[in-house]
Amino acid sequence: MNIHTQSKQDIVNLAAPIGFLAIWSGGAIFAKIGLQYTDAWSFLFLRSAIALSLLLAIYLKSTHNKIAITELKKDKGQLKGIIVSGLLLQVFYLIFYFSAINTGISLGIIILVLGIQPIITSLLSANTISVKNVILLAICFSGLVLSTLGYHSVDKINVSGIVLSVLALLSITFGTIAQAKVKTPPILTLLIQTIFSFLIFSAVIVYQGLFFEVTAYSLLSLVWMGAVVSVGAYLLLMLMLKYSAADKVSTLFFLLPLMTMILESLVFDTTLSALTIFGVLLVCVSLFIYQKQKSS
Q: What is the CA radius of gyration of the chain?
């Protein structure tokens, strides 16, 4: 590995996780606000439309990506991987996640189900995993459980909600693993994936119809989710998967609901309980040790 590549990797390893966590965790709040003015399908369609427009503009200005698409035509395996990971991460995960919420199941339960994702990804994608690292992952999940129980209600449960949550879990798990195997430039990869997601959500809208109430809050939410999250956060995720192992990147998902809780407490003036704070600290400490173990 040359000095330039190593330097670029160091920057990605430092800055990308911070940016990804800040953007993605904030996305949950913006989505919560936006869904007050539209339905889930309309929101997903408009979100993908904004992302596609932005990605096309970026792609058309990039000579490098135009060359890459010529090479991609020769590599059917890479194209298949891009489509599969895109469908899992940008279509099925979102559909199952929003559908689970619509069943009325407690958000805390959905968070706990999805919280298993870093553990499954680590077990499936890591070449070897020590007993110590398994214990650290278990402690991370325990911290997530404690923080969630201290912040979210878990009293509403139903079978359909559980099934849909599990399907969302499987989608994001195998989507992350599949994405880690894609070597095509991130912009081109995300453009292809967004085209497919846009076409699928468009078909639903043709059948169901479009509803969106235009307000300052709804537009801000839509722009954030369509441009910042759907483009910025996904590109950062792809960069991290390019320079780091999937099992290492996946552990960052332990922090996402915790950061969302903290941001919500600041934005909506809610109180964090002692149990939630203890859970957050437990996750952060155990995850820090785990990352150091994976780096050594």
A: 19
Reported confidence tier of residue 55, pLDDT bands at 50, 70, 90: very high
Q: What amino acid is encoded at 194 in this protein?
A: T
Residue position matching structure tokens 């912009």: 187
104: left (phi over 0), alpha (psi -120 to 50) or beta: left
Can you tell me the distance from the alpha carbon of 61 to that of 251, in angstroms, rounded to the nearest whole number?
A: 34
Q: Residue 287: is its pLDDT beyond 80?
A: yes
Instruction: Give the tens place of pLDDT for each residue, 92-108.
Output: 998 898 888 888 888 78
Report residue 194 as tokens: 């967004």
DSSP symbols for the chain = --HHHHHHHHHHHHHHHHHHHHHHHHHHHHHHHHTTSB-HHHHHHHHHHHHHHHHHHHHHT-HHHHHHHHHHHH-HHHHHHHHHHHIIIIIIHHHHHHHHHHTT--HHHHHHHHTTHHHHHHHHH-S---HHHHHHHHHHHHHHHHHHHTTS------HHHHHHHHHHHHHHHHHHHHHTT--S-HHHHHHHHHHHHHHHHHHHHHHH---B---HHHHHHHHIIIIIIIIIIHHHHHHHHHHS-HHHHHGGGGHHHHHHHHHHHHHS-PPPPHHHHHHHHHHHHHHHHHHHHHH-
